[in-house]
Amino acid sequence: MFNARRLILAHFVVAIVIFAVSLVLGEWQMVVRSPVHAWVDNPEHYYRSVTAHGSALAYVFPTLIAMGFGYAITVSSLRQALIGARLAWIAFYLVVAGAIVAMVPVAAGWASVLYTFYPPLIGHPLYYIGVVLVVVGSWIWVALLHVNERAWRRQNRTATLPLPMFANLAGAYLWAWTAVGAASEILLQILPVSLGFKNTIDAGLARVLFSWTLHAIVYFWLIPTYIAYYTIVPRAIGSRLYSDTMARASFALFLVFAMPIGIHHLFADPMVGSGIKMMHAIFTGMVAIPTLLTIFTITATVELAARVRGGRGMLGWVKALPWENPAMLASAFSFVLLGLGGAGGLINMSYQLDSTVHNTQWITGHFHMIFAGAIVIMYFVIAYDLWPQLTGRELPSMSLVRTQLWLWFIGMMVLTLPWHWAGLLGMPRRMAYFDYSSPDVAPEAWTVGLSSLGGLLVVLSGLLWVYILAASWRGPATQQPVEAYRFSEPLHAVLRVPKALNNLGVWFLLMVLLTLVNYGFPIWQLAHLKTSEVPAIYVGGRQ
Amino acid sequence: MRRIGLWSTLAVLGIAFVGGFVSFIWLPRAQLDTYPSFFAAFCAALGVPQPRQASLVSAPSPRSDVVLTHDLLQAPQASDVGTGATLALRCTPCHGPTGISYANSPNLAGQYAVAVYKQLRDYKTGVRTNPVMNPMAAALSDIEMRQIAAYYASFPKPARAQLTALPPPIVRWGAPMRNIAPCGSCHGGVDHTLASPWLNGEPAAYLAAQLVSFQSGRRTNDINGQMRAMVHNMTPAEISAAAAYYSGTNLP
Known about the structure:
The structure holds two protein chains of two kinds. Chain A is an all-alpha fold. Chain A is built from 16 helices and four strands. Chain A has helices spanning 5-33, 43-78, 85-108, 125-155, 163-194, 203-214, 216-236, 244-257, 274-286, 288-308, 326-349, 354-357, 361-391, 398-424, 445-474, 505-528; strands at residues 121-122, 200-201, 534-535, 537-538. Chain A has a two-stranded parallel ribbon. Chain A has a two-stranded antiparallel sheet with strand order 2-3. By secondary structure, chain B is an all-alpha fold. The model of chain B has no long low-confidence stretch (mean pLDDT 86).
């Protein structure tokens, strides 16, 4: 992979290590909160662990995967050496340094504020500074991707930007804009309080700014998964992408509709007007369009492979799919999880239905199903697919890979389905402790017990992923020199692409415009409201 | 396939327009029973605070006007402690010469200065009522209240504050299903929040009486109603367990 092989490998290795540690923390939380284990007696330890688990897996792990995979796409799809490799290393070290700087106060119990910060809770300043460093590192990545694309266009004035790079840039631009919300929340609102210059905070404004990031960040995590659907899966299963145009339209629409929807996380917060919430609910519904486009296109793509392999009938072709292929298996699992999670998401995003599940365990079940389920299972595929390129060695055993994917899928289902049910029974989220001896809570005990069993399968699967990747390192080198990394080909050769689908400019502008429409007034209003400051609540024994 | 960008922009603006109509015209029109006019309902939909119909709002209870600012938290001067000692002579009949009460009044030795100051202010303004303390505090100036608070904070905590018994569940864990946070998450043990008093070693009778008066709504000087919210769902058994634990009287 030109000059970026070690760089990409470094991103993946650090991401994998962080993933393995955080995964075990997550299962610990599940077990100590369940009736399986005696209560740990100190809620602070629980929230400390939740903060570490959430911060590492929401900010650091997917960012490193997106960055590493983003560089891989840049060099392989543009077929040019990475421009700015030294800056890319600086960005990598910034992210790693940020992760360490943030995790020290979390481990010491000075910043148990959970990864969503929850002002007026205020933790140690180093925690927030660490998060900002991670974001700054990732912004350098965005800039590098942009520079590499510009350089490629200067060399190839009439050519169409390859689909993987188009999608890669959509993810990068989305992240660049969406991270502005949390970054300004930290820099303008939280850090002055955390550093002691102020002791009140406008919690309402801070939460609105965070919601700017909080939903679109999910699509930033999702885009590597969608890139894998469109550009890895068809090639891996011996098919061709059903429609290149549909793929480009999906990514463009994700860029537009991911942003102006975050206030659906604040349906129960009083500082935002009901009309603003309704607008965000309506735009959240629009995300269904690129999602359904993708489901249609990828299903058509795998059906092509099945028909070529002799599949017949309305649904009979499903049997002819290459199920032994990990990419096929994982994308089917991912679709099931995405389908169930998406259906649950429709409930969360409706202004009225949300009130039945708001702040219940349903929500935690939902985002684990989508992120840890549908998204991360494709991160596994991305790593498996890139690994021979990065290490020059083959994976030790395909059956082990399939076992790992099956374990993850079953574990995720056993983890998240009872979790949703617990929420429907009314179990609140962000609780360190449940008194299962109470007759009110006793009927919910089995759900948490079962979820902790699912979590155990997930941990086994996650560690198996690490083992497979590590074992390949010790294995024999690939037989022949590894061929250049390829992405899938479209069914119909791309001859001409409309300007708007060769370039993200108009979509980026629409995203910014919609952000102004949907966030402009609430932010302006809250910034001018003089009565909305509340006393900060310092955690970790600070005054 | 031409002009995709233009048509997409128009479509998105169309969605925003229809969404805006639903959110800011149609739905506010359905709320005219709650707001005095359409304009008020429209502003409320935008998030601008609007008064609702008067009948829907209950009369506010008296609220503490104490604002905890940064200078309250700074270490006191030695002279503040000395002046505070003189001023505190009037407090000794109930709170004891060294801040240890023998009359079931709260022990003040080692209490956080912010906590003592806030209570004095609330007694002075009448937000917290007590037939003895209201006239006592009425005569104190702001600086005098700070000096008394600094004086009591300068004492070591009473020996009884070293609690060794296992805290009851309400102190350690609260009751999540009834929205009760653990006492220890604000009052020390798990964590401490600003202006929450140190409770260890306080008389059980005093603590139980305060919890009951928060519960009945007689005491209203918790700034955001947080104590009233916590105690609202506590059982009498939990109240006495918490009071007994903090007083140290549940020791064998």
